Amino acid sequence: MALHLLKLIWNRKRTNFLIIIEILLSFIVLAAVSTMATHYYRNYQAPLGYSYERIWDVHVRVPRGLDSTPEIERERLARMVRLIDATRMMPEVESVSHLQLGTFRDWEWNSDTKINGRQIEFNGNRGGDELAETQSITLVDGRWFSREDTGQNWDAVVLNRRMARDVFGDTRAVGQQIPQDEAPRPGQPADRPRRVVGVIEDFRQFGEYSTPGNYVFMRNDIVTAANAAIPDADPAAAAPADARTQVAAGVELPSIIVIRVRPGVTAEFEERLVKTLQTLAPDWSFGMQPLTDIRTSYLRSNYLTPLAILGLLAGFLLVMVALGLSGVLWQNVTQRIRELGLRRAKGADRERIRRQILGELALMTAIAVIGGLLLMAQVPMLGWLGAVPKGVYATSLGLAGLALFALTMFCGWYPSVLATRIPPAEALRYE
Amino acid sequence: MIHLEQIQKVYRTDRIETVALADINLHIGQGEFVSIMGPSGCGKSTLLNLMGLLDEPSDGKIRLNERWVESYRDRDLAKMRNRDIGFIFQTFHLIPDLKVVDNVELPLLYRAGTGKQRRELALEALDRVGLSSRVNHFPSQLSGGQQQRVAIARAIVGKPIVLLADEPTGNLDSQMGEDVMGILATLNADGTTIVMVTHDPQKAEQTHRVVRLFDGRQVQ
């Protein structure tokens, strides 16, 4: 019977061509939508790596002129330490730390490095010693930064699990130094060695829908840097200070104070804290918000609204396709009423007629889906997949194919039922 | 073979009730060649459709090949149409998108058998109607007489016990009509029961018996 149906489809290729093209285009739309949906669903399912409940972010804005000197920078760091200490003293605060690049914001430190002959891309950040505790960052091996990392001849780093696997494979990352393939640029000092002190589950700075990637945390030891002496102009005469300047290397003024508040803290706390901070740093400005609010607004503007619009458009398109397909199939069946009557006269029962119509449709769908798959297979070959893993793409194509079969069967079902309602004698007379 | 008892067929719409057939009692024995005659609209084709289980009577009973069929479900009726009955229509009803041989194979698709068996039976049937040289043609490439012979091959390919022909020569010129009647006579001589609707008294004379209808009633 399948061969018979294939013959019919082939011999009616002019009529069927348009149906197949319509199904093929629908497949491409569905494949794109399902790839996005699957990609974002998988991202959402992956661990975020930290908590945003009861976390408040204080965005510290420091006016920076062209007059910055090491002394001014040190004073700024010292003032930041005082702000954090003052925050810690407040009874509503459970824990406090600092972060260079805040979460759920489009602040990015994206870099790559060559390690063991492989180019490894990563996102980086700098955090304080209490950040893991404050933001409940999930450690899977080793430890977070602590005072014991001060004064070492290496910089402490914490990697996420993915980065640790990328760099060290199955070997345990904790205690190892990150290998550096690249030589320092001419005239530049060699980078200090970076030693892995801990591995975290993840730190998805850009939220649940972002693509999980490699992540590196550097220790931002602002306390030591704030207390460090300013090196002399003559480096040769500053041997004891040399170690201290090394400690200060890689330290940046944090832009976010991260606070974990006690349960039940209300918005009134925000006002009091900002007043306190403003007293300590009158020329700095502070923006304070619960991280849940920042997250909601960030996800809405970056993911949910665009996805909803795209989903709505795709849904509308699919409804139009479904209506169009139903219409075309109904017309197709109507034109074949006499043929269907003949088939019933020759021994086909209603069920067989229904199965034949749906079988023809399934074959046409299969042809369209195979054509669509050949076209869509070009996407990864041309490198257009972006952050979407190939496995997710392949799964999405499979899902799109299945959904399309379901859609065409749904669209073909009613015309097939109508076709079998006409008694054979009447169908044979049908004009 | 075919037994009709007190058959009535009434077509009803919202306002109108049309009696197509009333009080039809008819028996057609095995090996008979019977023609049904009557003016247009007297119910000849309706009667043939009822005999062929293509339609259901409003009242009365039908027995085909010793089986009363009024309680049969769609699937059972389809099986009987496939195994026991062959249809020939005035307008041939060939599927234009299928080759001659594929058209002839059509009834065999609805029963068990391999593609090779189907092909052998179809070629054999086409050989019987003298169309062996046209197996790979499409219906549009054939004359009216050849198309009707394809339709006859399709009707006999499943070796039915009865052939129901609805004005099989109605769309053909006299020579082609005679050819078709010759084929039907040969099939009847081989034991196939044939019931034929016709307007043509000359064609009716070539059959064993004539059933005449007038206004949905059997008059002879």
Pick out its properties.
heterodimer, A: 431 residues, six-stranded mixed β-sheet, B: alpha/beta, 33% helix, globular
How would you describe what is shown here?
The complex is a heterodimer of chains A (431) and B (220). Chain A is built from 14 helices and ten strands. Chain A is of the alpha+beta class. In chain A, helix 5 (161-168) links the parallel strand 6 and strand 7. With 220 residues, chain B is an alpha/beta fold. Chain B is 33% helix and 26% strand. In chain B, a hairpin with a 4-residue loop joins strand 1 (2-12) and strand 2 (17-28). In chain B, helix 4 (115-128) packs across helix 5 and helix 5 packs parallel to helix 6 (174-189). The interface between A and B is medium-sized, with 25 and 30 residues.
In short:
The complex is a heterodimer of chains A (431) and B (220). Chain A has 431 residues and is α+β, with helices and mostly antiparallel strands. In chain A, 53% of the residues lie in helices and 15% in strands.
User: Helices and strands of chain A, in N-to-C order?
Assistant: HHEHEEEHEEHEEHHEHEHHHHHH
Assembly state (oligomeric): heterodimer
Q: What is the strand content of chain A?
A: 5-15%
C-alpha end-to-end distance of chain B: 20 Å
The largest inter-chain interface, given as chain pair and residues per side, is:
A-B, 25 and 30 residues
Poorly predicted residue ranges of chain B: none
Whole-number average pLDDT of chain A? 88
Shape of chain B: globular
- Radius of gyration of chain A (Å): 32 Å
Output the structural class of chain B.
alpha/beta
Give me the side-by-side strand order of the main sheet of chain A: 3-4-8-6-7-5
